[in-house]
């Protein structure tokens, strides 16, 4: 099995190109089910999760071409098989995003329940309740959610009791083809949702309130072909910003946008990291020592839970103490014991962790159970004395394209072995 070997201590310097956002691309691909297309997605990343979503759509009966050289995905055709099987859904929870589009367009979907996940229980009750409010009838049998709406979905006012990115996306897609008006209240405002809404509008959907927590969708009879550029990956950008900061380097994140990274940028600045917006992207520079800072994860525009592990790695070598509180997922501190093995001083209780900065981390063999936890160990390895081996690299391949190539191009000593 592949591993990543890092020899730490090299300040990074140079440019890192930021790819299209994984968490925007997955729902955009599911949106392809809403029309015969073609739907052309530009700036598509080449990641394991994208390949999984492609396999899912292909088994539904769609044609999905991924031109990796051109960074383009072209989706066309219609679903014939309305079942999303367990084998694919258990590999990637975002598979449940096919449910809204399938029920809206074909009046039926049978989607495996995703089951538990390393970072939390992650139920999908909000997706189900919302579709029920729009007239779908659900049957839970054999581990599958079987939804039926033979006469089509109808508009409804859906008030989310809790902010959910996936439920907002699923219901937004479903609402585009429902009869009448759907109002999504307390909707998630992540940039990936704005991107999905923009793409749906290009396909002919009628949506108001993009970027706010109240989306109003006027259903249309059908959606058509469109070409849509995927937004840059703010989490990939934030991760490499932490890489520049933890090594005391200077890096230009090509294509990264300040609007997507507000809370992360504010926090980095508080820690003593310079962030400047340039025409080609964001420049991250750290010349002096790092100071500790407190963060709490929140739905957008708050500090992203997908940046929590990376920020914790950074705080391991900052001066003073930092309190990190995770409010989105109940089990998202699995990087803590691994960082501790590298010499970090972290204590956590419940949803909060106290990190007391140390002058140096030391390299060690480590492994993690999810994508962002794994990359936090890569960051720690970049700053550590000696050699770090990160095991279970397949987690990284789900969300970071050419990680070791991008980092070695800016001076890191990192390789896949
Ligand atoms: C998305 O997951 C992202 N995934 C996650 O990124 C990200 O961590 C998360 O949003 C939060 O920002 C994709 O976009 C593909 P949620 P999602 O529904 O949509 C609870 C990564 O590393 N909830 O916003 O599944 C849920 O348990 C990944 O790239 C319910 O209770 O997240 C969680 O506590 C990991 N019932 C909270 O809401 C529901 O029906 C937020 O989850 C749905 C969610």
Give a brief outline of the structure.
It catalyses: phosphoenolpyruvate + UDP-N-acetyl-alpha-D-glucosamine = UDP-N-acetyl-3-O-(1-carboxyvinyl)-alpha-D-glucosamine + phosphate. By secondary structure, the chain is of the alpha/beta class.
- With strands numbered from the N-terminus, the spatial order across the biggest sheet is 22-23-1-24
Main sheet makeup: 4 strands, mixed
Q: What are the distinct ligands in this entry?
A: ligand EPZ
Overall average residue pLDDT: 97
Low-confidence stretches: none
The percentage helix is 25-40%
Please tell me what the overall shape is.
elongated
Question: How far apart, in Å, are the first and last alpha carbons?
Answer: 9 Å
> What is the tally of beta strands?
24
Supply Rg: 21 Å
Structural class: alpha/beta
Total helices: the number is: 14
Q: Give the percentage of residues in beta strands.
A: 15-25%
Binding site for UDP-N-acetyl-alpha-D-glucosamine: 93, 122-126, 306, 328
Function: Cell wall formation. Adds enolpyruvyl to UDP-N-acetylglucosamine.
Family: Belongs to the EPSP synthase family. MurA subfamily.
Domain Enolpyruvate transferase: 7-407
